[in-house]
Amino acid sequence: MQISTIRKSITTLALLLVFSASHAQKVIKVEKPGELSKQITPSEKFSITDLTVSGSINGADILCLREMAGRDIEGKPTEGKLSTLDLSMAKIVANGGNYYQVKRGMSTKYYSSAYDDEVSAYMFYQCQALITLKLPTNTKSIEQHAFSGCTSLTECIIPQSVATMRENAFKDCSRLASIALPNSLKEISKCAFAGCKSLTSVTFPSQLEKIGAQAFENCTSLATLSEFPQSLLDIEDKAFYNTAVTAYTVAEDNDYYYASNGVLYDADKISIQLYPAGSSATSFEIPGSVAEIDEYAFAYAQNLKNISLPEGLTNVGKYAFEHAGIEQLTSLASNLSIGESTFSDCAELQTVDFKGAIGGIGNYAFKNNKKLSVVQFTGSAIPEFGQYVFTPKTVKLKVYVEKDLIDKFKDAFTTKKVALGKMYEILDITTSGIAKQSVYELNIDKVHFDVCGRKISKHDKGLHIIQSSDGRVVKRMVK
């Protein structure tokens, strides 16, 4: 009697498990666009975890999938548990009504399936139940915010037919660990993968032409990149801002970029475009040919402790060293221009020694450098200061200048609000204990040539080849 009861219980449990599994997984062929929901019962809708769909689907079907994956038409959470969605055998077609709407100000913006074979804007926006997704094999484009905010998404299979990926397409997919980009893709748009904190590596398409601004911003685990292809024309600002990239490499036949020891330059080696923030190096010697450092180039290079700006350098772009780990900064450059917030938030920076003349220093150039205690100006002229270049708070800032310039520096600091607050003093440079640039260094004869070898004035605009009497040759861009 007991054995019979046990057998019945086991049989019942097995049937329940089979029933549960059949509810959790489902394969559907949509015979007519807009009728996906007719093939899913109310009890299945929020219990299916694994769904395979074939046939043509439109906006109404996308809304059904959104609800199953955790979001309704207004973006409000649902009880949907759909984590695995296979659309590889489906075809997205236009029309079918709205699948997402959002109120902006006094009006409401509506989103629907706009074109055939397009993952339209906001299609799976914030569908936080989704973990794995296969797109239709004939997909041509992925529009803005199509998957942004899908915080559980770990894998998305993108077909080779995709040629366009719009802004914010995968933004803040914080668990996306890898992505295979199709070779047909020519542009990775602005913020396409920004905030994908689990992304560790990226292989670039062979036909890629452009990487948009902030494309991989705040991908803090991104350490490995494939070689930039020959076709790449443009990398926009902050494309790899706050990443862990250890080295940049470029195809030898690329006409726009050059890489050496993991550092990215323009093709003429005049400008540093990107320094790998994930490099373990504590120091870096800027080549003498470099005339410019691009905006954000060294941002978040937190292992970099010491940097010396060479004589031929003329311009350091805004935010170039933001959040870098530098402790000491030395500049040998003459007539150097330092942009806005160039060295802001360098929390470990303690001393700055300008051995050459400084043309200008932009607003907030040394903002929030909490340990900065000494700045030395060796030049015989006062730089063109912006506002709040220095923001001393916890440590008193000592600014050392030539004795006969003390009053002029004090006046500039007061009238132009060079420093925030009064936690600073301007002192005679001879009392600093820091060695000045030698007379020999200050009196080296220099001859300027253009790229054709013709002697030119040091004030002429363009690229200068500068030959010093000590045998050194540097390149400098004069604007």
From TrEMBL:
Signal sequence annotation: 1-24
Domain of life of the source: Bacteria
InterPro entries, per database record: LRR_5, LRR_dom_sf, Surface_bspA-like
Keyword Transferase: no
Keywords (A to Z) from UniProt: Signal
Protein name: Leucine-rich repeat domain-containing protein
Species annotation: Prevotella dentalis (strain ATCC 49559 / DSM 3688 / JCM 13448 / NCTC 12043 / ES 2772)
